[in-house]
Amino acid sequence: MARRPKLAVWKFTSCDGCQLSLLDLEDELLEVAGQVKIAHFPEATRRSLQGPYDLSLVEGSITTEAEKARILEVRGASRRLVTIGACATTGGIQALRNFADVSAFAEVVYARPETISTLADSTPISDHVPVDFELRGCPINKRQLLEVICAFLARRPPVVPTYSVCVECKRRGAVCVAVMGTPCLGPITQAGCGAICPAYTRGCYGCFGLDESPNVASLARHWRGSGVPADQVVRMLQTFNAGAAPLREESERHGRD
Amino acid sequence: MQLSALVEEGPAAFVVQREALAALPAVLRARGYLVVGPVVREGAVVLEELRSLEDLPRGWADDQAPGAYRLRRREDGALFGFAVGPQSPKCWFHPADALVFRARRSRAGTEIAPNVEAPPKLALFGARACDLAAIAVQDRVLREGPAVDSIYDSRRRDCFVVAVNCTEPARTCFCVSTGTGPCATAGFDLALTELIDEVGHRFIVTVGSPAGRRILAELHARPAGTSDVESAHAAHARAASEMKRAIDPVEARGLLARNAESPVWEEIADRCLACGNCTMVCPTCFCTTVDDVADLTGDHAERWRRWDSCFTFQFSHLNSGVVRAGTSAQYRHWLTHKLSGWNEQFGQSGCVGCGRCITWCPVGIDLTEELVRIREREDRPARPEIHA
Ligand code: SF4
Ligand code: SF4
């Protein structure tokens, strides 16, 4: 049998939810373990094999000096590097610090803020090293994760569409909540979740980040025109992917109103 | 007028009382049909299995505007007092996700098993005139062209259609201008006009096919008198006169062909989200993509056909890159194909005036208004000066 490719899973600043999607695969997990050698995955096993690794899944954003150095090592030891989740791809929810003074947060949160050593901004992995593929979501969708691993094994591009949530929403026959009066990020958010929130009559929160051609300004203008107050528009744009430039810029524009 | 024409051509009009209509879904089910019709879900009228007349949106009306849809109560207990919702018969005939085949790889080679699952025999209950026109458009493209789409054809082939003539169009409808409504003229087995007045709550029924005649024979129907036919006629005329929007399909064809460089496309792109909702709800849009998925071993694979949209990058992705990589090019392509290129390709316009793309656009882009804008902004050739 051909050598099994070595898979590594790395964590930076994150909640572990995306890595857990791998364990969440349940039915397919044994099959995955049969096809790849799980070389480094602290959430699953204490055993850690030496690199180089054929495929590294990287979760989390870069928020400390130590992480800045460590991501270079991970990249150096990885043939393919795929980021998983909003943190690794746009800086995550913790990129809200990028809009404020992080030391002020530290003062409020920690008893001894001087022990905290952190960067002013939370940044995506692609700001630091070249990334081969970015899998979106907060958390990622385990089906899409499996597809990325399958595609990697078959050396083909993964089938991970970059169009809007609306396409998935309509395909599953959900009724559009935006047209029913609920502000929804679906039209500018990348598909992948299966339009879960609209299917439960909630507006999309934008977990999967911006789609391939996001017109954030038009959507925000439409909300404001239908009576959504500026501060609520800012809150909607500043969530899991607040660090993405078009969301950041548009939210700052409404923040000034 | 269409109704009386039908009557003159042979099939007479009948009257079925509201209570007597209740038998129709069961009659159809007894003949093996899966009856699909309008029901209220998540605050909108969608098309789902109809177990009985009680499932219909009785006593509901809809308010539609660009980018807005709300249901509202009505007092008269009408069964069909609303216009079209976000879904159309396309959801049933041309499903959003369809398995094409399964493949298995083994030492012996690759085995491909086409999906031969028999689709349900469908009875559409309450299809509107624009829906029937849209079915005719999709028939033209998917079953009457040189290549027959077997998924579509197998669902469409044996279907039964109970049409409902519109008596209260939505503010977004413009089927009078496209010549596709509000009254069904072809493509149905039975067509109903709902009347609620001092005479009572009843349906004027016309027969469109021998199958329709056989089904009607199982209901309590009596021939309609002149006054009932006239009331139905008046209701259709009122609906037609109430229509707020219009396009000129003949003018639009040339206008769009001439105006690929109109500045209006960029102005639309400033608002358009390229979300693709307009294409998903359009009852004639038929474009699909194919996804091949395999398991980890690569020994089992499936091919799925899914709705796609000309508003996605993958749609125009060729090996040199994305051909229409900007929203203005995408919107221009959609509207120009629908109203202009469709004529050359399929011998008819691709728009049946249902207004779904107007209501279900999250930012309310309205093609009827955009056509006016394109016309207004068109650089007209300078008029030759006439010297005395
Ligand atoms: S016209 Fe409206 S529905 Fe269509 S892609 Fe643009 S924003 Fe979406
Ligand atoms: S283009 Fe719009 S109005 Fe015309 S058929 Fe399609 S959805 Fe209906």
Poorly predicted regions of chain A are none
Tell me the overall shape of chain B: globular
Helix content of chain A: 25-40%
In CATH terms, what is the architecture of the largest domain in chain A? 3-Layer(aba) Sandwich
Q: Number of helix segments of chain B?
A: 15
Portion in strands of chain A: 5-15%
Structural class of chain B: alpha+beta
Structure description:
The complex is a heterodimer of chains A (257) and B (388). Chain A contains eleven helices and five strands. Chain A is of the alpha/beta class. Chain A has a five-stranded parallel beta sheet with strand order 2-1-3-4-5, sandwiched between helices. Chain A folds into two domains: 6-153, Rossmann fold (3-Layer(aba) Sandwich); 165-255, no CATH class. The mean pLDDT of chain A is 96. Helix content of chain A is 36%, strand content 11%. Chain B is an alpha+beta fold and 388 residues long. Chain B folds into two domains: 3-241, no CATH class; 249-379, no CATH class. Chain B is 34% helix and 25% strand. Chain B contains 15 helices and 16 strands. Mean pLDDT of chain B is 94; it is low at 1-11. The chains are: A alpha/beta (257), B alpha+beta (388). At the A-B interface, helix 2, helix 6, helix 7 and helix 9 of A face strand 5, helix 11, helix 12 and strand 13 of B. The complex binds iron/sulfur cluster (2 copies). One iron/sulfur cluster is lined by residues 272-278, 311, 361-363, 365 of chain B.
